[in-house]
């Protein structure tokens, strides 16, 4: 029986604001640890759908997506968030796949047959420029993540730069790990091991964190744990205090 995540119902479009939804997916195991999954769906002005970090495909979810628009763009926002893209590519071969720095090399090293149509850059491509802004969060020797800002809804979309696990939604044995790694709600932030990879270039991390704040988001959606429906700027200042100090 699949593990519950605490974010049920799964595989369900959950409205955030006009033309933006989240979909909570099942738990995946990353180095033995249980991670709930979440994707973001945005409907672009041309009616096409933009899928950020797609969760495992599901028949009911696919029907629901068909009801709001055709799938045009599949987004792999960082080097570890691409696992389900080959399945989505098989189901929707006409959709274009966009990947962050490091994704193609990581997939190849794992012998994952991932088709890469475009590399994500520090500025939005014409396909969604003016609706979704983007930037690469620089400073890490390992972790390169592309972050996005949906202008109409003032929603910031992160992946692993902030993780915010709720203790009552994970196995009891995992709670001390969350505390040690620094990703336990209500003080979720970048995992400590990831933060160490920014140590030599903290000035770049600070500039990136300041750029996120300059968008003045109203909410922040992350892939793992409780996301911030309100108070976005205060949460960002708290979570990135290590970089902003």
Nutshell version of this structure?
The protein has 245 residues and is α/β, with parallel strands linked by helices.
Describe the structure.
- The protein has 245 residues and is of the alpha/beta class.
- The protein has one domain (14-244): Metallo-beta-lactamase, Chain A (4-Layer Sandwich).
- It is 24% helix and 24% strand.
- It has eight helices and eleven strands.
- The protein has helices at 59-66, 85-91, 103-109, 175-181, 192-196, 202-214, 232-239, 241-244; strands spanning 14-17, 20-30, 33-43, 49-52, 71-76, 96-99, 118-119, 132-137, 145-150, 155-157, 219-221.
- A seven-stranded mixed sheet has the order 1-2-3-4-5-6-7, with helices on one face. The chain has a four-stranded mixed sheet with strand order 8-9-10-11, covered by helices on one side.
- The radius of gyration is 17 Å and the shape is globular.
